[in-house]
Amino acid sequence: MKNFFSYVLPILALLGAVLSSEEVLQENTQQPLQQQEQKPSRHSNNWAVLVSTSRFWFNYRHMANALSLYRTVKRLGIPDSQIILMLSDDIACNPRNAFPGTVFNNMDEAIDLYGESIEVDYRGYEVTVDNFMRLLTDRWDSDQPRSKRLLTDENSNIFIYLTGHGGNEFLKFQDAEEIGAYDLKDAFNVMHEQKRYNEIFFMIDTCQANTMYEKIEAPNVLAVGSSELDESSYSHHSDMDIGVAVIDRFTYYTLDYLERIDRDSKETMDKLFAEYTFENVHSHPGIRTDLFKRNINDVLLTDFFGNVQNVVVDDVDSELLKKVEQDEAASGINKTKQTMMRERGPVKFSFECDENSTTLINVTALQAKLFGMIAIGFIGALWFVASKF
What residue ranges are annotated as transmembrane (predicted)? Predict the structure, then answer.
């Protein structure tokens, strides 16, 4: 019995030490993994809601603001089917427009924002507070077209951009009605309860813009505004040929930075926010991050301004050609082997004397049985001799 315990106890002690070390290792490996899970975005699709809430010729810059960001998010990969564009759409064909059918955002008039194929989802008197709220919460009648709905889910990242005239906790729509900060708060709460988003990036360019996001309570919302309470938001410059301001300062420097990146860019959100200095914007932009779970230093710009890039295709033609060549080569080898086998004829009880030789040693059935009996006898003799020692 003593001998039994002297063998068993060390084995049990060694087994316990191994199991305890594995548990400690699992605890140490699980903790950093949990910390890393919050850094990458877990969204699978991107949407953009771009709204110019103004109308009339003297608000030219607000339509140019929205169209400029529309052009940028399309360039970075978000398709028209996932962009909701709301415009008064009364600028391009306005009688005062010296360049009919066009909208520019710079005095050099290099890029016609309206000339390239654009899809305006809500235009004119469709741009209302009611339609905007219904769009966010998806509270439509059954006859509302899918192309005019925000068909997001819990895996969607949404970029929401508003531009127009505003004040303390309100934004004017079409100079006819207003949306308030509490309205946005309620809409975002409903979106969260309905699981309509993964993360939201809310951007607003208007006077006293920062007051519009201060009431938001829904989680995973990153917000930025162009000016603080009792502060105006300014235009950047005017085009003398057009006769009015063509873009706002806050949107201008946003675009100036975004035009330097491409779809596969690894630039992060903090780099964009660094452009919002008083020297550039002439106001005090605000950034709200307390509702957002991730550090803005880890948030890619393409998480909101771009599209999810699941597949990267490179050198497709050459790769397919190489695959075809490999298949043809393998097919040729198989055909050569089949030809050699046909030349040799059927093989029965034979051994190849050389790898590349076609000469075979014929063995009859009787010889094969004899070889088998000799091999069995030899193995039995070895076993008998080994058992004696």
Answer: 366-386
Find tokens 């169209």 and name the residue. Answer: 67
Round to whole Å and give the CA distance between 82 and 300. 19
Catalytic-labelled residue, pool 43, 62, 93, 165: 165
- Is 93 a catalytic site residue? no
C-alpha dist (Å) from residue 288 to 8, 114, 199, 292: 64, 33, 14, 8
Classify burial at 284, counting beta carbons within 10 Å of its beta carbon; exposed 0-12, middle 13-18, buried 19 or more: middle
- Decide if domain 45-303 falls under CATH 3.40.50.1460: yes
* 164 contacts: CB under 8 Å, gap ≥ 6: 51, 52, 53, 54, 59, 62, 171, 172, 173, 206
Q: Which one is catalytic: 43, 62, 207, 236?
A: 207
Q: Single out the residue of 242, 203, 263, 232 nearest to residue 64, CA to CA.
A: 242
- pLDDT bracket for residue 362 (50, 70, 90): low
- What does the DSSP 8-state code read for residue 52? E
Residues composing the chain: 389
- Per-residue pLDDT, averaged over 82-110, amounts to 95
Alpha carbon distance 139, 9 (integer Å): 70
- Residue appearing with tokens 């605890």: 27
Active site residue 165: yes
Identify the band that residue 379 occupies on the pLDDT scale cut at 50, 70 and 90: confident
Q: Are 277 and 255 in contact (CB under 8 A)?
A: no
Domain boundaries defined on the chain: 45-303
Secondary structure letter of residue 167 according to DSSP = E
Per-residue pLDDT of 257-268, as tens digits, reads: 999 999 999 999
Tokens of 187: 């809409």
Local structure of 173: helix, strand or coil: strand
For position 335, what pLDDT does the model report?
64
User: Helices 60-75 and 249-258 sit at what angle, rounded to 10 degrees?
Assistant: 20
**Residue 18 pLDDT class (50, 70, 90 cuts):** very low
pLDDT, one tens digit per residue, over 114-170 is 987 899 999 999 999 999 999 999 999 999 999 999 999 999 999 999 999 999 999
